[in-house]
């Protein structure tokens, strides 16, 4: 095998190991004060690994696992960790399975007692896998809005800021439904900056945007008149006090919530860099340095590699 390929494969394996969800979950739980009966709600492409690690930790620590749900992207017939129910949503676009997954999350939430501790485990893809609309909006309306946002030219923060407003469990609504139970939300971040309010549509995070802010974003993007009428009505109602706003910073609904980002792209980059150094290379880590279209980012990375080639150097960008 080509020596360079072997080195890259070793570094890739080290990156995967460094970002492994199971180890990150167990290490985080060792640092937290999790009391009472424990319930688990895991959503995302890493939901199986995160939930399995949580169950191992619960059993090992002598706590009681009271049940929960795992929403992932693989075959729903595959066994869930232990006693946890497992369902599959749709990805990368929400669909009928996502709506059903969101409904089943509601059933799991209804079983939570005030004295329970809830582990909410989020990873990439959560927004789509449990992507059901709020009351008053149809799944077709949500899909149309999502397509509008993706073609709007808004950055990921703007897209997520709008999209979560119309998601059943987004924008702090899951935390509101779980209150007053104690909630520990562990997140594997797939968004630049690791803002908990944007990871997985921020189901347990305060929403800094009011309805008027969301309307302004849509208007500035030039898509307000194309937004489904039902979505415009929901924003109008919230602006004028007809419906409840999403939980804001300082909301009592969030008083029992603990947020913790336990992994991100930087974790993987650090693992790859450490292995590269062990192999005699001089890696330069550039976390978050590439933005925009993938093709443009690839050309920029290629330019940097050519400029810095030689001397056993390699650049790692996230």
Q: Low-confidence segments, ≥5 residues, pLDDT <50?
A: none
Count of the separate structural domains: 2
Strands in their spatial order, largest beta sheet? 3-2-1-4-5-6
**Rg for CA atoms:** 21 Å
Instruction: Return the CATH architecture of the largest domain.
Output: 3-Layer(aba) Sandwich
Distance between the termini: 27 Å
Give an overview in words.
Helices cover 42% and strands 15% of the residues. The chain has helices spanning 3-18, 21-31, 47-60, 96-110, 126-129, 139-150, 156-163, 173-178, 211-220, 229-239, 265-278, 294-307, and strands at residues 38-43, 65-72, 85-88, 117-122, 182-188, 257-263, 282-286, 313-317. The strands form two sheets. The protein has a six-stranded parallel β-sheet, sandwiched between helices. Strands 7-8 form a two-stranded parallel ribbon. It is globular and about 65 Å long. The two termini are 27 Å apart.
Structure described in brief:
The protein is α/β, with parallel strands linked by helices and 318 residues long. Helices cover 42% and strands 15% of the residues.
List keywords for this structure.
alpha/beta, single chain, Rossmann fold, 8 strands, globular, 15% strand, 318 residues, six-stranded parallel beta sheet, two-stranded parallel ribbon
What's the layout of helices and strands?
Layout: H1 3-18, H2 21-31, E1 38-43, H3 47-60, E2 65-72, E3 85-88, H4 96-110, E4 117-122, H5 126-129, H6 139-150, H7 156-163, H8 173-178, E5 182-188, H9 211-220, H10 229-239, E6 257-263, H11 265-278, E7 282-286, H12 294-307, E8 313-317
Parallel strand pairs: 1-2, 1-4, 2-3, 4-5, 5-6, 7-8
Helix pairs in contact: 1-11, 2-3, 9-10
